[in-house]
Amino acid sequence: MKNNTAVAYVLLALATLCWGGNVVIGRAVRGDLPPLGLSFWRWFFCCLILLVITAPRLKASWPVIRKHWKLLLAMSATGIAAFNPLQYQALHSTTAINSTLILATCPAFMALLSLFILKEKLGLAQIAGILVSFFGVVVVITAGDFRTLFHLKFTGGDIWMVGAAIVWALYSITVKMRPVTLDPLVMLMVITGLGALMLLPLYIWETLTYQAVTLTPTNLAAIVYVTFIASLLAYFSWNKGVGLIGPSKAGVTIHLMPVWVAFLAFFFLGERLEGYHLMGIAFIALGILLNSRRARV
After folding, report:
1. What are the distances in angstroms from CA 202 to CA 146, 179, 199?
2. What is the pTM of this model?
3. Which of 106, 128, 176, 243 could form a disulfide with 165 if both were Cys (CB 3.0 to 4.6 A apart)?
4. With the C-alpha atoms ordered 75, 246, 287, 128, is the resulting torsion angle positive or negative?
């Protein structure tokens, strides 16, 4: 059990690292890649790659897919078709601080949904862990100056981000309910394929009425990253981690995202790591440690 827990947190940390890069890229290409277009091509290519990998296993997996198609459809609608367009749309009109703060509420949504839907027990340690870790997020994104919070201005993009946080919590609940007899890669292929199908008519509408996807070297590089790193690697890691320890405990690892963004900026953009970064990281680590403790009745 301890080994499974350790593996789960490593996988969840890897997923949030991949998504930290996704937030940076989504913000960088927001003017060139419309949200539905980026989401559609991301999942279309994911499905193609996974289809090649899982083709020999599809026939054996088909009875399980057919039996649990409603759950798989729910997973696809929330985690694939809804979450990413909502997030990319939010990044068009909100700041990095606002989006990170709002996304940091996701563990609370996940804990509440786990309590009511999955009947998972929440102890004081889990609640304290979420609060302590959230405090660490606030320290990082405000640079240790909490007066910044009083000057935040909320936009329409923040509403999109709230929707994204709720949808992601719902997706994580469905991951815990997934059929354990279904190969994880086959499951990912199914939900990405269904998600691409759901996004297709919306993508066509976006292309005709708003903006088309243009293939520049930068845009292609962004699509490659979100396909292989932020999708294939991150979703497989997240699904596996949530399956091992449950959404209420996994959710708090989302608070690692601002930490990874700070490290990515340090290594790739030459930005400095300040004392408030280290203080925030310490609180986030403490929060995750508290949250990982077994709930008591």
Report:
1. 40, 29, 5
2. 0.80
3. 106
4. positive
